[in-house]
Amino acid sequence: MSVNRRNFLRLLTAGAGAGAMPFAARAAEIMPKSGRRVVVVGGGYGGTIAAKYVRMLDPTIEVVLVERNRQFVSCPFSNLVIGGERKLADITMNYDKLASNHGIRMVFDEVTAIDAARQEVVTAGGAIRYDRLILSPGIDFRFEELEGYDPATTPGIMPHAWKAGEQTLLLRSQLEAMKDGGTVVLTVPLTPYRCPPGPYERTSMIAWYLKQAKPKSKVLVLDANPDIVSKGPLFKKGWAKHYPGMVEFRGAQKVTAVDPKAMSVMVDGIEEVEGDVVNVIPPQRAGAIAVKAGLVGADKNWCPVDATTFESTIAPNVHVIGDACVAGAMPKSGYSANAEAKVCATNVVALMNGREPVEMSGINTCYSFITGSEAVSVAAVYRVADGKIGAVPNSGGVSPDLSELEAIYADSWLRNIMGEMSS
Amino acid sequence: MSRSRRKWGAALGIAALSAMAHAAPPTPAMLANACAGCHGTNGASAGLAMPSLAGQNKIAMVEAMKAFKSGERPSTVMGRLAKAYSDAEFEAMGDYFAAQKPAVAVGQKFDVALAAKGRELHERHCKRCHLEGGKEFDENAAVVAGQWLKYLQIQMDDYAAGRRTMSEKKAEKMKPLTRDDFEAIAHFYASAGQGE
Q1: Contacts of A397 in chain B (CB under 8 A)
Q2: Alpha-carbon span B28 to B30, nearest angstrom
Q3: Model confidence at B22, in pLDDT bands (50, 70, 90)?
């Protein structure tokens, strides 16, 4: 079915294939559409904001937000849960106020298919029609690139904790159960992946916990990239200052296989490295529904989009935002998803009202904690130049140092961005 | 802005290749919405170190952005971000936030005794520019009443430590004040709208 659908979408893009509906049984329509409707899939950093801003910008457009979970757990700040500085409840929200404040219709269900020709998403409960679809599906993992990795069982032994929630708590409990003098192995995939500085903040937060509770222990970072991907000099400075001898960073160490029984990973097919706790962050791609719907580009992993409207360059009336899309130079971060959602909502509303779209202006701000009370940041403004989204020259950049003030602002960042999402 | 428009023109020149949607220049809302991830929807901050921009004095906001851009006013991310915008864009964002319904940091805790002391200090030292208990403004003064206490404290600390420079008028008025006085004034402004 997925192959058929991909072919179908290709035909559609090529401007052919008008009538030829594949033979899959059609799901019954739920929530019959009377007026104009936007369906948003995925209630995270991107989807909540897209749904909210469409309603704020044009209350005559009905918005349906489809999300499989009743609660959302933030990936930003989940490393602080691992480090013992926050509780999972601190980074968990529900959708009640968002829905009631803005008249968003929530559907808690899994989207199993997207029919771009009929302009409907298919859930277990039935089909929901749309005029425009905004997909914010986040990421899924390319487990198949790790030999010996069983998607059903390996995460329970070697947590990725790259989707926050149970996995976050599992990694935390493994650290708590580890003996003093143990080694934590943390593996980083090649870019692009969700949250470029995330693995290094996690390294810091693990070291922060170990320094207090298990000071003879070590964190070994095996990074497939040649060097630290984001805020490198700041992380190295922070590790040297706070965790000398505790954090070991090795670049250009691509994990190719895992052995959950031996608690080891294989680097470049030759060197086996064991750990007492092994945090394997697998390589990633756009959330499964985007892949299934044939919205990924030539790289087969990420969704190419128009730099102004975030409309898929593959399927008309389907927009993709957040980690799943290719937004030029914008990193795959929570704040980027928030900013992209607003650009997308603005231009979806413009297009649905026959107005000219507005050129994008977006921001990314991203904080990483080095200790429980010191953080670093990166910030930039993004615009379109030469048809691509790029950082505005001679602006943006990283904090000059780690500081407590950055950590205070980081805390306020979370309050505000989750406040935007949840109300 | 003019620079990015020129680049756009160039991009369009070579263009049918990329099937980019034709687009108007960023509207004030497009510029301002990007700020809301940290400053709250429409500039109504959810706390604690981030100031609300909703209902702020446009002149104060534009001056602040220019001072962030030049580095004259200390900041963490604001200086880095401000460098990306033109003066005309500061004006557009200033207009946008000034037009929003003023936000009050509802439900925040403050010290009642300190706020009372702060009120007296305000009457003697601040009220000629920060009108109506700090809810209104004269010329380039900022709306300070109803801001988050943490934000106010960080600003006061920057003034007290000499990291943030004051206008001559302000420096003259604030000269006799101690750090404790600054703290009291912060509590007074934070108390606004808290049902005191």
Answers
A1: 80
A2: 5
A3: confident
- Residue among A358, A376, A399, A423 with most chain B CBs within 10 A, to mutate: A358
Query: Whole-model pTM above 0.90?
Result: yes
Instruction: Identify the closest residue of chain B to A375 by CA–CA distance.
Output: B76
What pLDDT, on a 0 to 100 scale, did the predictor assign at position A27? 87
Task: Show the CA angle centred on residue A5, arms to residues A132 and A344, nearest 5°.
Answer: 25
Taking 50 as the pLDDT cut, the residues of chain A under it are: 1-21
d(CA A81, CA A103): 33
Nearest CA-CA distance, residue B21 and chain A, Å: 6
Q: Are residues B122 and B185 in the same domain?
A: yes
Boundaries of domain holding A117: 2-68+109-140+285-358
Based on the fold, state whether residues A18 and A8 are members of the same structural domain. yes
Please tell me the distance in Å from A305's CA to the nearest CA on chain B.
9
Among the ranges given (A15-19, B100-104, B152-156), the one the predictor scored with the smallest mean pLDDT: A15-19
Do A251 and A321 fall within a single domain? Answer: no
Residue B50 backbone zone (phi > 0: left; psi -120 to 50: alpha; other: beta): beta
Last residue of a domain, one of A335, A358, A381: A358
A170 and A233 belong to one structural domain: yes
Q: How far is B193 from chain A (nearest CA, A)?
A: 20
Q: What pLDDT is recorded for position A294?
A: 97
Same domain, A234 and A248: yes
pLDDT of residue A4: 43
Average pLDDT of B80-101?
98
Q: Which residues in chain B have Cβ-Cβ distances shorter than 8 Å to A419?
A: 40-41, 46
- Residue B134: its pLDDT value, please? 96
Within 8 A of A374 by CB-CB distance, chain B residues are: none
Which token pair is A292? 């299934």
State which of A283, A311, A328 marks the end of a domain: A283
Tell if the CB–CB gap between B15 and A387 is shorter than 8 Å. Answer: yes
Whether A231 and A278 map to the same domain: the answer is yes
On whether both A224 and A251 belong to a single domain, the answer is yes
Residue from the list A311, A356, A397 with its beta carbon closest to the beta carbon of B80: A397
| CATH code assigned at B134 | 1.10.760.10
Q: How many separate domains does chain B show?
A: 2
Q: What angle do CA A99, A104, A109 make, to 5 degrees?
A: 90
Q: Are residues A11 and A54 in the same domain?
A: yes
Instruction: State the total domains in chain A.
Output: 2
> Which of A346, A359, A413 lies nearest to residue B38, judging by beta carbons?
A413
For the CA atoms of B32, B33, B38, B40, what is the dihedral angle to 10 degrees? Answer: 100
How many of the other CB atoms lie within 10 Å of CB of B14? 10
Which residues of chain B neighbour A381 with C-beta distances below 8 Å?
A: 34, 81, 84-85
Residues B79 and B140 in one domain: no
Instruction: Say if residue A346 is in the same domain as residue A321.
Output: yes
DSSP letter for each residue of B86-141: -HHHHHHHHHHHHTSPP---TT----HHHHHHHHHHHHHHTTTTSHHHHTS-STTP
